[in-house]
Every structure is written in structure tokens, then in C-alpha cells.
Amino acid sequence: MLHDKTAWIGDELASLKEQGLFTHIRTLSSPQGAWLVVDGRRVLNFSSNNYLGLANHPRLVEAAKQAMDRYGVGPAAVRTIAGTMDLHLQLEERLARFKGAEAAITFQSGFTANLATIPALVGRGDVIFSDRLNHASIIDGCRLSRAEIVAYEHNDPDDLRRQIAATTEYNRRLIVTDGVFSMDGDIAPLPEIAAIAAEHGILLMVDDAHGEGVLGRGGRGIVDHFGLHGQVDIEVGTLSKAFGVVGGVVAGRPEIIDWLRQRGRPFLFSSAMTVPDVAACLAAVDLLEESTELVDRLWSNADYFKQGMRALGFDTGATQTPIVPVMLGEAPLAQQFSKRLFEEGVFAMAIGFPTVPRGKARLRVMISATHSRDDLDLALDTFARVGRELGVIA
Asked: Which residue in the list 88, 99, 135, 210 is annotated as catalytic?
């Protein structure tokens, strides 16, 4: 009888497997890089968000070691009680300066940064205008806020205007969008959205998780990319992708950052970022401020790979960034394609529902500055071979 309580879970898992939607989680036994050891096999890596190769960079590793020698490992407290170290304040000051913002606050992850920020800014009686393809962390932050959520069509400023005009009952208002959309690799039309926000006096928030370290001068992000300093109220980012570590950051006006220190629940109720993480993030800022070499190489690699895939006949969707979706349609085909690539020594994960809509399954190929031209040529040859074998390309 006890198992009857969870019988429905077994049924749901069986259904996921039948639909090709069950996620098989692979195991790494090597550092992040262009090549990985995955499930005991050495494979060419196109699945990590390690855009600049910093996740295993010697300077980040050394910075983490030195910080642990001085400070230990864990903060052992929330930031507001006994968990704020001078390292945290250094990182926040450096990130604000790097992004050209007045102030910044860090969180344990990009996900918690969104969960902290949105409910602190809006609540019952307020309204949020949210891009229909926003990340799950934005969606969850919106739900937690208990504000009314009005979705506008993806990257469609005209529909945003229509939704604003049709929504007349509100106290406060917030527009929120991803900067780079993680599954499609396209970029939000932020200048148009910023103009709409200014015209209507609405707070504007952008989640730049996949733009940090990628877009803008030397990776300073989407606001810098479009020259919109001072026109975007809240920039949320992550330190787990291009920065190669873990953590979240919110940058903006000092009063907003001060308010998050008072009302951002993950800041108040969850222990601070660990010592080695903070030190490694500081080393990543050092590297990005010193040179644009890694960012330039990332974009050169991305352009080369995308041109090669399109020449082969693959559909790479609407990407404008180093995120390259290989559009396949149905989840079973995407899983089969990923499996065959892995057998051929290339690691590129299949993405299906609910991460993307039904019928829009794909492989999401993540390009890195660590890939050599030989790596990219090997990948293109392998994609071509498997694509022909499965009837995806001629």
C-alpha cells in the first residue's frame, strides 16, 4: 500500500521514456574544457556553458586556493548576520565597475538572483510584462511575486505595447526579458524595449545570464552591447557560464541594490557564496578587464561553426550568438541524434519539452573559446555524417 502513494510517479516516468522526453544524465570525470571524459569516454564537448574556458583556468584555480588558505571554505552564515566577507564586497564593487553600473549585489546563483529580485520589486496588485520565452527562473520569480503576469510575444515590441495598453489595473509595473535566450541564441531587442519602458514609466529588468562575458566590449553584457547604460533599471546575470564559476549578480541603481539587501529572500535566508567561488570570480573579472582575446576567439569560433553548419544544410534557427540550436523537431529524433554523436565522440545534448515547446526539439551546441579550428572541423564532419545517416540533411 505504501508504494501506491507514488505509483503515479512511475507512470509519469514511463510516459516520459515512451515520448523520448526522459533525461539521461551523463557523468563527467574531468575538468571542463573543449574535451571531456563523459561516462568514461573522451569526447569533444559542445554541451557546457563554459564560453571562455574559465571553468578550469589556472588563474581562477590558484585564486580559489589562495583564498581558502586565508579565509577557509564556507561563509557559514547568511550575508546579513555573519556571512559578508570583504571578498564579497570586493566582487560586488568590481562587477559594478566592470558593467558600468552604479552598484551590484551577488547571490548564490543566477536562478536565486531572479527569485530575489522580482518579488522584491512587485507584488499583489502589480503587473509584470514578461517575454513569452523567458527563462524558468524568471517565470518562477514572477509567480512568487503574486503580481499579475502578462506575457508578450517573443521579442515583439509591438505586442509589448499592445499588452501595456490593454492592462489598465495596476499599482507598479515591471518589464522583464532575457538578454540572450538560452535555447534559441537570439538577442532581445533591448533598445526598443527600453524606449517603451521609458515612455510609460515602467521599471525595466534584463536577465543577461548568457550575455555576461559574451556580448559587449570584452564581455560587459547586453546593456553595453547596445550602449544603453543608465536606461535599464536592473541587470541580472550569472557567474556560472562565461565566468566559469557559480553565483548570480544584480546590477543597477544604488537604491534598488540597497532594497535587495533588505528584501531579497535568498540574500536574507540562504548562506553566502563560498570563499573559493568569490575569489575565482574576482580572478575572472581580472582576466576580462585585461584583454578581449578570449571573447574575440569565442565569436570567431561561433561564426566559423555556424557558417559550416548552414552550408551543410542544418537549420540553426534564429541564433545571433555562440548558442547554436540544431533544429530537429521531434524529441525522439533529437535524442537519437545526440546518442549517435556521442558514439562518434561528440557530446551535444538533446533538448526537448518542457525546456522547449513540443515539436521544437533540438540539439543545443555551445561554442567555446577553448575549441580549436581542428575541433570545429571534426565536429562539422561528425554532424554531417550523422545528419545524413538520420535523414536530417541531404
From this structure: 210
